[in-house]
Amino acid sequence: MRMVFDSSSIILLAKISMLNIVAKNFECVITKDVKKECTHKKDYQDAKIITRLINEGLLHVENINVAKNMEYEFRLGKGEASSITLALKEKTVLATDDKAAIKACKIFGIGFVTSIDFVLRAFEKDKITSEEAKTKISKLDEYGRYSTEIIKNALETIGGKNEQSSKSQA
């Protein structure tokens, strides 16, 4: 599945060591603006991971022209505005953890997923263990801007699967 990523999600996924897994399971696309935002601090570990995945061809970079009023009207950065524009053009899902971008997705009818969704899906597909998932959610709580309720629900989802698995084995 082809999916567009904005800066917030691509950086968070790199920080929690999920970007490799995601890039191997989805056709990941970022805009030139997102690439610039994510890789300009070359000594940051997340920038190194993103650059490596671009060089390996697992992250595809595309250029797109953004409507001049998109950033202003929705209070978006260049990366988010270009990502939304690309997702609209391609009629695909946007990976974003940016509150303003999520609001714009809802207005434009663009499907979206967050970094938490990727962790939960990887856990559900047995690509990561429950302990790895809990650690990654805790790191997202540290690095991201999630409400306590969202983090609590994600951790309960992880715990819920473990309880169901152990009950079905009994």
Q: Count every beta strand, where a strand is a DSSP E run of 2 or more residues.
A: 5
Helix content: 55-70%
> Which structural class matches the secondary elements?
alpha/beta
Distance between the termini: 37 Å
Please state the CA-atom Rg, rounded to the nearest Å. 16 Å
Average pLDDT reading: 92
Largest sheet: 5 strands, parallel
Give the CATH class of the largest domain. Answer: Alpha Beta
Strand proportion: 5-15%
Question: If you consult CATH, what is the topology of the largest domain?
Answer: Rossmann fold
Look at the structure and name the CATH superfamily of the largest domain: 5'-nuclease
Helices and strands, in order, run as EHHEHHEHHEHEHHH
Using brief descriptors, characterize the structure shown.
about 170 residues; alpha/beta; Rossmann fold; 2 domains; 5-stranded parallel β-sheet; 10 helices; 5 strands; globular; disordered C terminus
